[in-house]
Design goal:
By secondary structure, the protein is mainly alpha-helical. It is built from seven helices and five strands; from the N terminus they run E-H-E-H-E-H-H-E-H-H-E-H. Strands 1-2-3 form a three-stranded parallel β-sheet. A two-stranded parallel ribbon has the order 4-5. Helix 1 crosses helix 2. The two termini are about 25 Å apart.
Length: about 200
């Protein structure tokens, strides 16, 4: 089960509130509350993997969620400390990740590797959008948004990213495409298979 981690600022409030900076004690209290809830869920469903997904960034409102940064999400997974609470990474082109957060995407994935249990594999060009921008056809010409395109259509270097974790990976790789690309599902799977074959998989 893919779980979207808790937000410090709900997206429903973006229109009425600007960037939010909670005091450290309040952030820790929210993280503790989420950890308790997920510990209870993990105990109630021990045969279900709860895969926590790192959050997408939004122009103007980030950071609205601690899980925008994979290593911070990894810290929360360690805090929860349950075998069936793991991670589902959201891939971005490393240059855009570095530009937005000032961090190395490859290092972030490398650090999260032991916790990765599930992957949605789709492509984009890595340019972020405002939270109010929802129409994909308006974003795509400018390389913006989480496009969910077939593997190989965008700028995400999957081979480079997979090199950080794929050899020890034992989960699913799902081509999660927007409906407009459904006819290219075979192409996406073929491109993904080619990348995996380069690792001997």
């Amino acid at each position: 089960m893919v779980y979207h981690p808790g937000r410090y600022l709900p997206e429903e409030e973006f229109a009425s509130r600007g960037p939010l900076s909670l005091p450290q004690w309040e952030q820790q209290a929210l993280l503790g509350r989420e950890a308790e809830l997920l510990q209870a869920a993990a105990a109630a469903f021990p045969n279900t993997i709860i895969a926590m997904e790192n959050a997408r960034p939004y122009l103007h409102h980030s950071p609205y969620c601690y899980a925008e940064i994979p290593q911070v999400l990894t810290d929360q997974i360690r805090r929860i400390n349950r075998d069936n609470v793991r991670m589902k990474p959201r891939f971005r082109p490393p240059p855009s990740f570095r530009q937005f957060y000032g961090l190395d995407m490859l290092a972030e994935i490398r650090g999260a590797a032991p916790f990765i249990a599930h992957c949605h594999v789709h492509d984009n060009f890595g340019h972020s959008v405002y939270a109010s921008e929802k129409i994909q056809t308006h974003q795509l010409p400018f390389g913006r948004g989480d496009s969910h395109m077939p593997v190989g259509w965008g700028n995400i270097p999957f081979k480079t990213l997979f090199a950080e974790f794929i050899q020890g990976y034992d989960g699913l790789l799902i081509c999660e495409l927007r409906s407009r690309y459904f006819e290219q599902t075979g192409e996406a799977a073929k491109n993904l298979a080619s990348i995996l074959q380069s690792f001997g998989i």
